[in-house]
Each structure stands twice: as structure tokens, then as C-alpha cells.
Design goal:
Structural class of chain A: alpha/beta
CATH class of the largest domain in chain A: Alpha Beta
CATH architecture of the largest domain in chain A: 2-Layer Sandwich
Largest sheet of chain A: 6 strands, mixed
Oligomer: homotetramer
Protein name (chains A, B, C, D): Prephenate dehydratase
EC number (chains A, B, C, D): 4.2.1.51
Pfam family, one (chains A, B, C, D): PDT
Radius of gyration of chain A: 23 Å
Catalytic activity (chains A, B, C, D): prephenate + H(+) = 3-phenylpyruvate + CO2 + H2O
Pathway (chains A, B, C, D): Amino-acid biosynthesis; L-phenylalanine biosynthesis; phenylpyruvate from prephenate: step 1/1
CATH topology of the largest domain in chain A: Alpha-Beta Plaits
Largest interface: B-C, 50 and 50 residues
Chain lengths: ~325, ~325, ~325, ~325
């Protein structure tokens, strides 16, 4: 029964699985690893799964382009949750392998920049070859094709490996953000500390179009949290923009900004409003970020005033 | 009965009276000249008159500060009509006076810059002294205090004078704009070529406040037609702004801009939306001025889209 | 000898004369009253006077349009100093006149809004008639044409009058700003708390032109202190802008903003950079107003960096 | 001798090699394939090579993050040339292999989205596994590990393979842009149709910082051609921006924009100004893109005017 099934970017033992297991509802769902982001999302589109968890952004490697591009195109999907996970690698080896024995290492291409410095310092002679995923690298070590794999420590037992070194990461705060994606429905309820995700196509490529896009947000005091250009496939120099802004689509300032975008851009895709992970909505500092004049109550007072003016009771 | 009475900036024979008589309804109203703009407007405030016609802007002398300041302060009033009048002066003299006899001339201070060049060329020795109005200057000539007065040619018979020279004006296109002011009620109906008038007070005087004000208009593609700073009386460097923008308060783009102003400015006074004089609302060039994405239908389409997104039908 | 002669807006006994006498150099100059702002300035243009002091802005009545328009047109002039003067009126009468005797009052039209409330409260029946200047009003009282004149208390002895009531003013902080105007030469030295005055004509009247003008200032962190629209004489809706910004033309940020204006506007007239009156240049609060990234040293560091990049030493 | 040596992203047979061979000077250089973008660039940093050719942007897959990040960090490098190459894949197989024999395919991860549709239509059952490069995939086919590899047709002979299908690409206009990178020196001469590359770090992460960055360009009429956010490694939500704008660092408008960025951003890295590939600098359409007021001659006229004003000759 699909409502009880969640797909995720597999195989078993990836950071994505670890992220998925932080969700309380994961305990009662059938969790199905998929070989790629597109297949994980297509299972949702096709109704075989209720939702999919996929990585969208890494603090070292940046946006996960497969996810960004899948969400931007094809049948629409929506984001309902986000999960933040600290990323630290373990060097997984077959039992008995010592550091000096390692000639070849593998891992997901995304892992490489995060372990680059550690490799240069500790295994300068080792040859790196990319694997399709960190867990896949672990499997290839199990099969003997490589001597060691970088993966999450939690992947070791699945592949009969041992963590030789743990907590390897170059950047102090390496994190990956994952999103739980489903078919379009009513957005998650407003928490007070929300994120709204969009994909925006600019028009006839006039030079100031990006500036105009940002001004639609700025004019309503809506803060941009993330912006990534992605090629539209129509040639070098043609981009669409994957954008996150703070706030919820039911916040008046966010709604007005979205309508402004919709009017000036040939295409806008709403990808969801959902609670920001790692942020406490009851923290006054989070609520206090609003620019004066952009709260819902100020929007409503201004709308009342406008109605009074239109009626001659200004 | 006050509903049938209109006041205007008198005395009889001023350009204001001439402007008032261009309104069809003037034929059926009692037209009462008042000694000043404040008294003309106070008669409306007090209910003794239904409306007042007063000058607000002259193409040579600029804004009529008495009108701007009266509309900005005191009990609120609203503008329902505007009238544009070409301004040309006649030199009025007592019968028998020749150009060579003229040693002293008078007229309203506003007239002076418009006849300055003519005076320098034709009566370089004549001494100018200001009168309270052009018509008042005519009266003072009638009484013999001055030799000649600049006024509208139509004022001559009222004061038993003769127009010695007519069609005097320095700037080729001298015009005055007058407004018909009443107590606040529902604005004039939208004509498709409208003007909306406001007075806007800026906040705690931070340097970028004026720029922010203009951006509220620009963000919605609403064109500014006129902006005048007026002192608030709180000291050098403290201003409020008398602003006209194109469009009607019931235009969606104008309404959103006004709400934006209301949210960021400590005080906004709506002075009315009314048809632009001298402009044909059915002219495609007038209608075609809209920036893409700012028509009512585009606003409505964007609002529909937002509602669909909020409902999960994006 | 013209170098020793200063003209001012007369006649003797005006606030302008009082402002002029606050300048130390006034003690060693011949001070010549003129009948109007244009004649005072034309004496400078013609070389009969080294400089002229004229009012430019009043905290109650706003810009002095005769001065603004004279500086905007005709042979160029430049501002070298400004003087701020508190404005309080005295009611001047012939010796022996009591308040109850006063049926007619006079004064400059600019004085009227400043004494309006006082008149309504104290002489509600008195008829106001405008005079060419406050001092001229005093002269007309001396001649017996009016019963009382509003003027500066200092004007009383000149006209053989007595101040019946003193310190009359509606707005608590009524002030007039005067400027000392000469022929164009090197601007006044930078004081650290300066004002730069400009007249700016916008181009083909496209709707966003005023916004673009303001953005040239904003882009360089230059604060606008005053902006007044003035008609160009080419018809209703055609304006030029009289603008003051903070800073000196030799400040790098001001220079870059001025060059930006010069490039986008069909005409810019530089009217001078001069010390702000009533401001202490050594006050850290005044110096601290600069936006980060806009000091001269930051401009110079950025220029050095650019040169290094252009030379391949980035 | 290093001056005669160019490195490139190898191995032999990659699109990068094909792009490099389009440069006339390549005929007289020793061309050395390197295993990765970092090693290709480090050879330049270390002086073992005069320059390196690396891919920077693909019209389907977007920015090449290894290149963007290497140019943003470490010892500074500079871009002197760009090359645009149309990307079409061939399916390379060992002689004798038929389409029906293919169970496993490989190629660079960047190739996958470009051949995804072709695979789904023609080899729906084939399993994809990523290789370190397209050429590396060819080598693995040669070694028998996979049945087929996607790579440039030109790579076939190097690895003893045959192109079974050619001209495979999903997006009609698939192109890759490559850059020739050397140690910092004087930029390439201005061609009249140039591109300037920068990396820009924003300050204390205030919400409007990106808008301010774009406004420094917009204020000088400098068009943005490309913008990519890249994580700084300091955590989710912390980005720097890889930016290309049109124009050359010796264009006055570009220089002023760069100085503006330098003043407001904590760090700006200039990566070079160089001729745009695929654009004819003598084409009036290219030269005509300039916004009025932003040509060098207008900048110089404005600078002359400013100097005259500062000298009192305004």
C-alpha cells in the first residue's frame, strides 16, 4: 500500500537513510531505497510511494543538481519537510586492513571534496575512484574492488566492513539538507519559522531580469535564503533559478511577493512551504527578523485603510 | 442651501473663476468668491459649500503652496475633479491710459515671473508691487492706486478697465491646474486615465526614506506624475511629500502601492482619484502606458494562482 | 569697488539683512539692499557686487521659489556659505497704537502662514494685505497705509515704529536658511560637514527617471537632504529638481554620484559645496553618518585594487 | 620547459582535449592530461605548466563545481580565454558489440543527464555506472568492465573502440564552456565583446546583501551574464557567488562596478577579463547593448565635468 511507503536515495546505509530515520513517522513506514534521485521521485509521481527523501543541498558541495533539476521539471511535486544532518565520514575497510595497506579508495563524488584534505595528509598515494553512492562504494570494498570506502559509519555492518577512522570531514560544519517530497497538496501548516521553495524562469533574458526578481522579494521585506542558477537546457547563458525564501505562502508578505513574481516571470513553480529545520519558531530572534511594515497585522491594517479610502471613509 | 454652492479663490475675475466656469455643473451652482484658499476650503469643511475650486499647480510658478498645505493638514478633504487652464495675462488700465503713462504695475506674486520678461522689455522703468490676487490688482487700478494691473482679460469689465495689451506670458505653455475639492466620500469613478493624489509623511527621517517611498510605486509599475516636498513645520530639513501618481485607487497596482506606502510610512493621506484633464481615456497610447504584469487582469490571475498554490492545486 | 560690496534681499531691516550681519566679513563690506532676489543676484552676475545673500528655504513656507529659479537659470552662480536664522516676528506699530486699534495688518506673503494662528487668536477681525517684504510692510505702516506690520523686531527703529508684541511665530522651530552666492570659482574648502547643491533636469520624462536620479545618490551612500521639484516652464508635468545632498564635491562618493547624474541626465548644474550651518564637523555623530564602504579611504583602496587587477597584480 | 606546457582535464580523448585543440597555440604546446581539475590547476600554480584548460559550465548540467571552487580558493589564478564546444556523445563499444548486447553502460556523471532520455528509449534495461571521466569510461569498456561508454566520438581510436551510435544528446544545444587558466598577469586585451569573471563573498549575511551586489552592477549599466552560488563551507546557508558580467575590467563602467563591489563586500577575487567566445566584437548589435550613459566616452566627459566643477569652471 503506497501510503505507507517512503522511497529514498539508496542504497541502504546512505546518509539519506540516516536522515530519513530521524523522522518519527519513518518507524511506521516501509522505507525503500532507490538507485537514484529520479527513480525515488518517479515512484512518488507514479503513486507507488507516498513520499521520497532526497538530498537537496550540502554545505560543502552545494546544491544537489539531480534533485534541483527533477523538482524543476516533469510532473510537479511538493516539499513538506526538511531534515538537516551533520555529515562525517568513516573510512570503511574489510576486517584486517590497516592504513598502510590502502592503495585505492572510493566514495560518492560529493564525498571527495569533504575528505580531500584528510586524504592528502593521511593517504597521499591512494588513488580515488568515484562510486555511484557512498554505500555503493562500501559494497565495492566488500567485493574487493577497492581497499577502502568513505561512507557513514552506520553503513559498516550492512556491508560487513569496519570503520578504520571515523569523524572525517574537512569543513567543520559539514551538513546536508534533505527534503521530503510528495505529490502536490495543501502545504504544511505555518510554523512561524518556515521556508518557501520556488523555481523561477526569467523572461526574454533581459539583463536586469534577475535584479527585478530579487526586488519582488525585497519590496515586501521577504528574505532570500538560497538562490541557485540552473541551466534550462536551452544553451549556455540561459538559466532558471531555484530559490528559497523565508516565510510561509500564507504569510501576507510572501503571498504578495509570489504574486509579484508570477506577474513578471513567464513561469513560477511553487515547491512548498515547510518548517525550517534546526530553528525554533518560538525564539523571539526568529520572529523578530521581520522588517517593519511586513507583518500580517500590518498588511491587514493597510488593506482595511485602502478599503476605507475606496469607500470614502479614509 | 450648501449643496448648490461652490466657493472659489476670488475675487471675481480671477483665473480660478474662469476655470470654474468650464465645469458644466457651474451653470447651476451658486459660485461664491472667497478671499483666500484657506477660506474657500474652510467653507467646504464647515458645510457652507459643497465644493471649492482652487489652483494647485502652475506650469511656471510651480505648486500653489497654500493649497498643498491646506490639503495636507486640518480636517481631511478630497479632490474630485481637475481643470487645466491656459494662462495669458492682459495689461488692464483705466480707459485712456497709454503705455507711456504707466509708472506702477501690480498683480498677484504668482503672475510676476510670467510677465517679468515682458515688463523688462516694454516697461523697464515701471515699479512692480504685489497684490493679493490678480483681480485685486485690477480693483486697485480702478481705485487709482496703481496705473496698470496684470490679470485675465475677462476681468476687465468687472472693474471698469480696458485691456491695453493681451496675451502676455513668458513661457509658451503657461497653464494652471485647478482642483475641485469636497468633503471625503467615494472617489470619482474610474475613467481609465486617472490621477491619484496623496500626502506622504516619511518616518524617522532616515536618508533612504524617499527612495523607499518611490520604490513602493516602482515595484508595482505605478508612474509618479508629480512630487513636491513641503516643510512639516518641524524645522529645516523635515518634509512631507505631495505626490500624484497615475491610475485610480481601484486599480489593483495602485491599491497595492498605496498599501505598501501605508505600511512603511507613519502617515499617508489619500486626497482622491479623479480623471486626468486634457487626456483621452480611450486613447490607446494612454492605456498602453502600463508596464507588463501590472494590469488588473494580471493581478487577478496571480491572485488566483496564489490561491491554488495555497490549496495544493498550484 | 565691487569686491567689497555684498547685495542682499532688502530693504533694510529684513531678516536677510539680519542673517547677513551674522557673517564676520559683513563688518568690512558695503551691504547694499536690493528690491528683489533677481536684482540682488544680477548685481553679482554683472560684477557690481562680490556676493549676494538671499533666502532659499523656510521651515514653514518651504523653498523660496524666486531664489531656486534664479539659481537654476540664467548665467551660472555658486553658493559659498549658508546661514540659518531663527524667525520670530514682532508686530510693529506707530507709537501709541494699541492692539484694539488695529484694523489692517501687512507683511510679506511668506510671513502670513507663520502668524496666521496668532492673528486668528488675537486680531480675528484684522484684514491682512500682503507687502513686497516684511520691511516694506513696516514702511507702509510708517506711511500710515496699514495699522501694523509683521517684521523682525530689529526693523522697528529703521522705520520709527515700536514692537507692540514680540516673538510671534506659529511653528516652534521656524527658521530660514540663507545662502551667500557669488560667481563660479573654486568651491569652499571641505569642512567635513558639508552640503552640495545641484539642479538636475530629467530626460525624456520617462516615469522612472526620478527613481534613477535618487539611485545615483543611493548607490554611493550619499544622503539626500532636500529635494524640490520646480516647473521647467515647458508645461504642467515637466519639472527640474533642486537637490541638496550631504558631503562635498571633493568627497569621492559625492564626486562619483555627480558623475553618475551627469551621465544619465541631460543637464546638471553644480551650485556649490559649502559647510552646513548649525553642524559641528568635529562631532563624531556627524562623521559617523557615512555608510560603510563610502569613505574616501575605502574609495582609494578600491581604486588601488582595481589598478592592481588591471596590471595583473590583483 | 613549463612555458610550452598546457595541462588539461584528461585523460586523452575527453571533450576538454578536443576544446583545447581548437586553440591555435595548442599546435605548439605540449598538452598534458591530468586526472582532475585540481591537479590540472595545481600544475599551473606550481609552475610546471603555463596554463590549463578546464570545463567551467555546461548548458545541461550547469556549473562545473570543481572548477568554480578551485578558482575561488587557493592561490589565485586567472582566466585568459574561453572556448565553447558543442557536446554530442557517441556510444563506444568494443568491435563486434551490437546494441542488443549492452547490459552495462558508463560515462562521466555529467554525461548522464544528457543521454538519459536516449537511454530510456533505446537501452531501458541497461545499468548505468559512473566513471571518473568520459574517457575513463572508454578505458573501462576497453578493459571489459562495461559493455559501452558514452564519450566523444574522437575518443574511440585512443581506446580501440568503435562508435556504435553517434550524435547522442538530449538537449538540442548542449554546449560546454571551457576556460584557459594561468597565473595572474595583465588581463587579455579588450576585444569589445568581453566577459569579466569574479568571485564575490557577501558580508555578515544580511538578507539584502545579494540585492546590493547586483545593484553595484546595475547602477553602472553592467549586465550580469551568469551567477552561481557556491557554499563557503561554513554551513548551510553560507554562500559565495561566482559571477560573470559583460565587459572588460578596463571599461570604465566595469571598473567602477568592481570598485563598488570591493568597497561593500569583504572579499572580491578578480578572475580575469577575456573575449567572449562565439561573439563577433565588430557586430553593432554587440556594441549596441550598452545602456545610455555608460560608454567610456560618457564616463570621461563626466569626469571632465566634475574636474571643472571642482576647479570652479563648471
Amino acid at each position: 500500500m503506497s501510503a505507507s511507503r517512503y522511497t529514498y536515495l539508496g542504497p541502504e546505509g546512505t546518509f539519506t537513510e540516516a536522515a530519513l530515520r530521524t523522522l518519527p513517522e519513518a518507524a511506521t513506514r516501509e522505507l525503500v531505497p532507490m538507485v537514484s534521485v529520479p527513480t525515488a521521485l518517479d515512484a512518488v509521481r507514479g503513486g507507488e510511494a507516498a513520499a521520497a527523501l532526497v538530498p537537496i543541498e550540502n554545505s560543502v558541495e552545494g546544491g544537489v543538481t539531480a534533485t534541483l533539476d527533477e523538482l524543476a521539471t516533469g510532473e510537479p511535486l511538493m516539499i513538506y519537510r526538511e531534515v538537516l544532518l551533520d555529515i562525517a565520514f568513516a573510512l570503511l575497510v574489510r576486517p584486517g586492513t590497516a592504513l598502510g595497506d590502502i592503495k585505492t579508495v572510493t566514495g560518492h563524488p560529493v564525498a571527495q571534496p569533504q575528505v580531500r584534505n584528510w586524504l592528502a595528509a593521511n593517504l597521499p598515494e591512494a588513488v580515488w575512484e568515484s562510486a555511484a553512492s557512498n554505500a555503493d562504494g562500501a559494497r565495492l570494498v566488500q567485493e574487493g574492488r577497492y581497499d577502502a570506502a568513505f561512507a557513514g559509519e552506520f553503513a559498516a555492518p550492512t556491508y560487513g566492513l569496519q570503520p578504520l577512522v571515523t569523524d572525517i570531514h574537512d569543513a567543520r560544519t559539514a551538513q546536508t539538507r534533505f527534503v521530503l517530497v510528495g505529490r502536490p497538496a495543501r502545504p504544511a501548516a505555518r510554523s512561524g519559522a518556515d521556508r518557501t521553495s520556488l523555481v523561477i524562469w526569467l523572461g526574454d533574458d533581459h539583463p536586469g531580469a534577475l535584479l527585478e526578481l530579487l526586488q519582488e522579494f525585497a519590496a515586501r521585506g521577504v528574505n532570500m535564503m538560497r538562490i541557485e542558477s540552473r541551466p534550462t537546457g536551452e544553451g549556455i547563458g540561459r538559466y532558471c533559478f531555484s530559490v528559497d525564501c523565508e516565510g510561509h505562502i500564507t504569510d501576507r508578505r510572501v503571498g504578495e511577493a509570489l504574486m509579484g513574481l508570477k506577474r513578471i516571470c513567464p513561469k513560477v513553480r511553487f515547491l512548498g512551504s515547510y518548517p525550517r529545520a534546526g530553528v525554533d519558531a518560538s525564539d523571539p530572534a526568529v520572529r523578530g527578523e521581520l522588517r517593519p511594515g511586513t507583518s500580517d497585522s500590518e498588511f491587514e491594517a493597510a488593506a482595511d485603510w485602502l478599503a476605507r479610502c475606496q469607500d470614502g471613509r479614509g
